[in-house]
Amino acid sequence: MTKLVVRPYRTEDARALTDIFYDTVHRIGLVHYTQAQVNAWAPQPKEYERWQQRLAQWPPIVAEFDGRVVGFITLTPSGHIEWTYTHADLQRQGIASRLYRHLEQEARQQRMGRLTVDASRFARPFFEAKGFAVVRENQTVRQGEKLQNWRMEKRL
């Protein structure tokens, strides 16, 4: 992906990022989770206003390919990676890796000692490949559905 640009979030990205979140969870999430779990994780209809507020709170790093937003990753002030999503049609093409490298560089510049993430079943192998280790298994309940993920950590 030679035309991939990694850049700061812009307010006008909110709708595209919301679509990436919902579409990826609903399409890719079904590989590891049930339809009911996916629906609880990303309930329909899409909550554009809520996501705009969330993205403003933790502005993500955005990946753009040929002028089209294709992924995002977010680092909170505490060193937690809140979201890492790549467009469902563009999985396994290096987008998340580019975003992650940028995020880790920022974290090091801010002198963060560690990064944490609550990785889903499909994100866990990605973060393990980046040097994260499992700290514990999490079981969260959303809309009556149990969702499994793992708290992972990487020392910088």
Short description:
The chain is an alpha+beta fold and 156 residues long.
Tell me what you see in this structure.
With 156 residues, this protein is α+β, with helices and mostly antiparallel strands. The protein has a single domain (4-113), classed as Gcn5-related N-acetyltransferase (GNAT) (Aminopeptidase). The protein is 34% helix and 33% strand. It has a seven-stranded mixed beta sheet. The chain starts with a strand and ends with a strand.
Which terms would index this structure?
156 residues; alpha+beta; Aminopeptidase; 7-stranded mixed β-sheet; 5 helices
Radius of gyration equals: 15 Å
The counted number of beta strands is: 7
CATH architectural arrangement: 3-Layer(aba) Sandwich
Secondary-structure-derived class: alpha+beta
Distance between the termini: 27 Å
Helix fraction? Answer: 25-40%
Major sheet, described briefly?
Answer: 7 strands, mixed
What's the tally of helices? 5
Series of secondary-structure elements, N-terminal to C-terminal: EHHHEEEHEHEE
Rough outline: globular
**Percent of residues in β-strands:** 25-35%
CATH class category: Alpha Beta
In the sheet with the most strands, the strands line up as 1-2-3-4-5-7-6
Poorly predicted regions are none
- The chain-level mean pLDDT equals 94
State the CATH superfamily name: Gcn5-related N-acetyltransferase (GNAT)
